[in-house]
Amino acid sequence: MKKKTILGFLILLFSLVLLITGCSKSEAPAATSTTPASTPAVKEVSTPDKQADTAKYTDGIYFAMDDAYASSGWKETATLVVEGGKIVSADWNGVNVNGGADKKTFDKAGKYNMVKFGKAQADWAVQAAKAEAYLISTQDPAKISYKDSEGHSDDIAGVSIHVSPFFKLAAKALANGPVGRGSLTDGAYFAIQDDYASGWKDFVSFTVINGRIAGVDWSGVNTAGEDKKAYDKAGKYNMVKFGKAQAEWYEQATKAEDYLVANQDFKKLTYKDEEGHTDDIAGVSIHVSGFAKLVDNALAAGPVAIGSYADGTYFASDDDFGTNGWKETISLFVNNGNIVNVNWSGGEQEWG
Description:
The chain has about 350 residues and is of the alpha+beta class. It has helices at about 1-25, 50-55, 105-110, 115-120, 125-140, 165-175, 230-235, 240-245, 250-265, 290-300; strands at about 60-65, 75-85, 85-95, 185-190, 200-210, 210-220, 310-315, 325-335, 340-350.
């Protein structure tokens, strides 16, 4: 009886082993799978934010400039070109209080000399180009940090000049919206009267950026080569003191210059007499028709290249009187690096 019981138990145990082995072979364990399950491709859907990034700005040309000239004599400008909603071009430039070449041209001609005289790491135009490239890469004039109140930044490699004026002007231009391009050729323009009148030859020197007149200098030069504005500011012209004028000549000339920049020409100006006085420019009682004519002459002549000389007045005279009793003199006036007026004269020896 015991043998039958033991035999039955062994048979049952053997059957259980066969059953477990069969189940193990028929089921493949999930942990041994080496092929990852394939997932369906997800098509990226553009979100409003991404659409804004690719078309952030309205296409067109944007422009802005400072309201006034800095103590350095420059008024800075920013011109941006937007295509496909993105800034594709940026120009940081400037115009001088004396007219003539724009800041970049002036620097590239070797006349600004930040490296030579200021020990800068690179000249102004080179550093300006890096700031322009930074704006194009970030697409946002607000994406820059400043380390001081003067607007210097460590965000742009190779740039030590203060860059806040450029980024502020870029923001201003974008806020104002596209303005397009003017009809004039960019560059420096100049014209001067043929003859002296009341001891002066009036001249005009202005700068065109983005097809528009951006900076103007209306002044004059006398036989001694002195600049009319500087002469007036030194208290030597005295229109108020001796002529009872409402303001000095240089102050009225500045208002006429501002009118030209705002209106781009004098076509809408009306004159009340043959001398060329007008009531259309507030605070201006001097005759401005001569100024308007000079502007037309300069535009007709076209842009002038920058010359090699330093702007200003030059004077020289003989050391001694000649046998004829005369000591000859010469005065030169240089604008935009070019000699634009010469007066060759002389002084007679006084005999006792």
